[in-house]
Write a structure and sequence with these properties.
mainly alpha
Length: about 210
């Protein structure tokens, strides 16, 4: 089995992310390496229920990655430190969730995912999604998840934002779609939280 990539955030505490030790670690990382490491970390869901932070962190990471190349030189250090802070806070937020990533779903992963979300089964939804991401890139995942995420209000109704940002976040070390695991697990916990107005037939208009 291929060893897991070294995590540069292993020894960074969220309260010390602007300290000298963190600065030395960041000095040794290119922007690409920093974003790869942060993306890998945020692809591992935390134990317990989702929080405002764990639902928003992948969105902030992708937005900041998009903007990083536009940041002026005097502000780059602060911008990179903020990305490191997101990753360090994620690592410190809770223990990694104990999930059966190595358990193959019984059926096509997308079909199993859709059924698990409908049935309110976050663990099965998570395993199916991991299996799906093993064979699909982020552009394909956007197509797969549109009907799963957009009508649903779980995950603070942020599925649309995630899918909007995902195609432009392209770290080398991980399929960044995996950062949707926390969002999808929360959506599956609340299968009845959904929009239904577009399912109703429109009344016919009469014009006098």
């Amino acid at each position: 089995m291929k060893p897991a990539p070294h995590d540069p955030f292993d020894h960074i505490h969220q309260d010390d992310v602007t300290g000298a030790s963190t600065a030395r670690i960041l000095e040794g990382l290119t922007d690409s390496e920093l974003l790869d490491a942060a993306g890998r970390l945020l692809s591992i869901p935390r134990s317990g229920t989702a929080t405002s932070f764990t639902l928003h962190a992948p969105l902030e990471l992708m937005a900041r990655a998009r903007l990083l190349r536009l940041v002026s030189a005097p502000r780059r250090e602060a911008a990179r430190h903020r990305i490191a802070q997101i990753a360090a806070a994620w690592s410190a937020s809770d223990e990694p969730a104990q999930v059966g990533d190595d358990v193959e779903p019984e059926g096509p992963p997308l079909h199993v995912l859709v059924e698990a979300v409908r049935d309110g089964d976050p663990e099965t939804a998570d395993r199916a999604f991991v299996a799906l991401c093993a064979h699909r890139d982020q552009d394909q995942i956007v197509d797969d998840l549109v009907d799963v995420m957009l009508p649903r209000l779980g995950g603070a109704a942020h599925g649309a934002i995630f899918l909007e940002l995902l195609p432009q976040f392209r770290p080398a070390g991980v399929n960044p779609a995996l950062m949707a695991r926390t969002l999808l697990r929360d959506i599956a916990r609340h299968p009845d939280w959904r929009l239904r107005w577009f399912e109703r037939a429109r009344p016919e208009r009469t014009y006098g």
